[in-house]
Write a structure and sequence with these properties.
With 479 residues, the chain is of the alpha/beta class. The chain contains 16 helices and 23 strands. The strands form four sheets. Strands 8-7-9-6-12-13-14-15-16-17 form a ten-stranded mixed β-sheet, sandwiched between helices.
Amino acid sequence: MRIHILGICGTFMGSLAVLAKQLGYEVSGSDANVYPPMSTQLEAQGIELRQGYSAANLKPTPDLVVIGNTMSRGNPAVEQVLNSAIPFCSGPEWLARYLLKDRWVLGVAGTHGKTTTSAMLAWILQFAGLQPGYLIGGVARNFPSSASLGKPPFFVVEADEYDTAFFDKRSKFIHYAPRTAILNNLEYDHGDIFPDLAAIQTQFQHLVRTIPGNGLIIHPLGDANIDAVLDSGCWTTRQQFSVGVPYKDCKRLAANGRVFWNAAAQNQQGSHFTIMKYGGGAGGSLVNQADVIWNLTGMHNVSNGLAAVAAAHHAGVEVKTACAALNSFAGVKRRMELCGEINHIYLYDDFAHHPTAIATTLQGIAAELESETGPHRLIAVIEPRSNTMKMGIHQQALAVCAKAADLVIWRRPDTSALNLEKLVKESSKPALVFDNVEQIVGHLVAHCAAGDRVVIMSNGGFEGIHERLLTALRQKYPG
């Protein structure tokens, strides 16, 4: 079977392409924005990439076209599919139809942390010898690619709430019917498709209705938005998790046969913590615990790791084995990924594109820097690229989300309702706005000093700013 994927360089569709290739299909794809790491991953898999959406890209005619959710009517390739009556489906529909129907699906949903938590969960199962299949919306360093068929029964999928396709406005995760579901957190996002938080909660309610009674829902303690979803109707066993809950409260939360998961940080950076399972019996006692010592930082990652351990435990992995796996978890590309170091100036790439994600990421690295004695600064360079950001919905939250940084630099979008001048004025830390990447690179090269950490934050390619900055710094500091 010949499959052509429209929007193939998106994180989800690129991963789906890898799975189709592993199933033995002949796979090609089209996209308007081709950049690493997804483009290089696809090329390494022998998948042909075609630039743009010309109708000619569909010659010879494929047996099936898988249409990404960035496609819309009027797109030349979409019109060719419809006019020529070429069979088509959405990516999530393809995944459910060809892969998930006979699998124990472990789905990771939530506004933040889906990719990292999915990667952690897949790695724990792999480390335990279970050889799971997985589809992760990013490139996990513990795996050769972002997706794999694995071996039955387990399949880990990043369960995204974004809509499925122009012809299917349900959230992607409605197609997956997970047996084990992590609901990591829930905030308002994707303002381009959801009018308000209640609309997102409705989609999460639909997800909850697809989870079997003998499955498991793992969700955080104290997330009122998720609690409201579950209170509207839940027929599945639930387990809660949190970070830093006192012992007596853990026992109370695990009473009467319930299970509660807690993590106790052993340092401020979150690079060493203890995972504890309470309950399962009448007394709510501590029944299992183990330490994690890894290279990641930030309490958001501690929470992600805790949820992954709880989900893996449902699949039969012991807590100590799961924690041992996390000790060797290498992270995900574009999640605080070190791109290079020139003259002791460190450049990181991070995918954060929501105020909460920006805040937790910067807090994590700021906590790590507190142990340094020499001069240093944390500089956040942010491209407000997501539709929600550009709509101005997060205007107030963006003004304070980068307060852990010493300097905030904003790249002005070409079109945006976001008031960047107001953002700079209301910022609790020094902030600047530049119209283009060239100006940003020029400022950083002129003003960065040894010890500085520069964190580039965007959910896109940011016009190659990472390599452009490294090149400029090498020219300034040769040798």
